[in-house]
Design goal:
By secondary structure, the chain is mainly α. The chain folds into 2 domains: 132 residues, Four Helix Bundle (Hemerythrin (Met), subunit A); 176 residues, no CATH class. The protein is built from 12 helices and no strands.
Length: 326
């Protein structure tokens, strides 16, 4: 453990700011479309930029693809981004045709796809930083020791309550949560026997909400929604373990779907929170445009039951053969 602690003191993780910029630029684009929809057909465009020509598309098919080509997430992002543009085109068509019911239905799907894109960008960010940590540790034995003993976010130093900027605060929160969520599958082995999950206020993200988020950003409704959604996330995670221990695989699988949706909601709310706090000119490619205010986070939440997360294959039903100890 001394060796590991000594190594951790020398490992510094650099945040992938280009991915963060891509996430905020996409959110900005989505909010502009929604603002145009609120104002009616006369304010909404009749056609969109090609999916490769918007700010996120330029990044995905340029720097992003070149820099992150080794990750499956970048390919999945490209596919989902193209689907998102096609869905928005159908939405605008319904709007200009005056079909209000179809417009509302399509808007739900567009918002859901947008959350998929935000979540996939966050996964890409996490995988990039985890790989960087493995490289910094030199791979081999050190990386193996690290995987056994490192805490969920030991590779990322928590921001100081007073000194951290909103960007640093939220980057830490985002990665701390996703790191914990991405390792949840490991608790499913042997039907979750002997597993005791952390409570919502004991994990790194929960501690951040109480120690920093609620103190610095209490005037923003997103931080209060994050607290509620995060508690639900831990409750559903605990429900997975209980169902596994009782051999109720179907119920465990349903709870797992809820956990995935809640995790994605957390990534979305954190992105909205950062969008509200960060100066837009620092993240948007078109600084000349004035940013509209972000709509209420409450109106952005789409019920998890609408549709499952994109390409999220439950490890629980597959588990019956592969993941839960045989």
């Amino acid at each position: 453990m001394r060796l590991l602690n000594s190594l951790e003191e020398n490992v510094k993780v650099s945040v992938t700011f280009d991915i963060n910029k891509a996430r905020l630029v996409h959110l900005d684009w989505v909010l502009r479309i929604e603002k145009a929809l609120e104002l009616g057909p006369d304010s909404a465009p009749c056609a969109l930029q090609h999916y490769q020509d918007c700010e996120l598309g330029l990044w995905l098919h340029g720097e992003g693809r070149s820099k992150y080509r080794q990750y499956d997430d970048i390919r999945q992002l490209t596919v989902e981004h193209r689907r998102f543009h096609h869905a928005v085109e159908h939405l605008l068509l319904a709007l200009h045709e005056g079909n209000k019911i179809k417009t509302r239905e399509l808007l739900i799907g567009v918002r859901y796809m947008s959350k998929d894109i935000i979540y996939l960008l966050t996964l890409l960010e996490l995988r990039t930083i985890e790989k960087q940590r493995t490289v910094q540790l030199g791979g081999g034995l050190f990386s193996f020791i690290d995987s056994l003993f490192a805490t969920e976010s030991a590779w990322l130093e928590p921001p100081k309550a007073k000194d951290g900027s909103p960007s640093v605060d939220i980057t830490y929160a985002r990665l701390a949560h996703l790191r914990w969520a991405s390792r949840l599958d490991h608790r499913f082995k042997n039907y979750g026997q002997g597993v005791a999950l952390q409570s919502h206020d004991a994990c790194d993200f929960g501690a951040w909400i109480q120690r920093i988020g609620m103190k610095k950003y209490s005037d923003l409704e997103e931080i209060h929604l994050l607290d509620v959604v995060h508690k639900s996330f831990h409750e559903e995670a605990a429900r997975i373990i209980r169902h596994l221990q009782n051999r109720h695989l179907q119920r465990a699988d349903e709870a797992y779907t809820d956990v995935q949706n809640l995790s994605r909601e957390i990534a979305w709310l954190l992105t909205i929170l950062e969008y509200r706090l960060a100066p837009l000119e620092a993240v948007a490619a078109s600084a000349a445009r004035a940013a509209p205010p972000a709509p209420s986070a409450q109106t952005q939440i789409v019920q998890a039951a609408v549709v499952g997360p994109v390409n999220q294959l439950s490890p629980i039903m597959a588990v019956a053969e592969h993941l839960i100890g045989r």
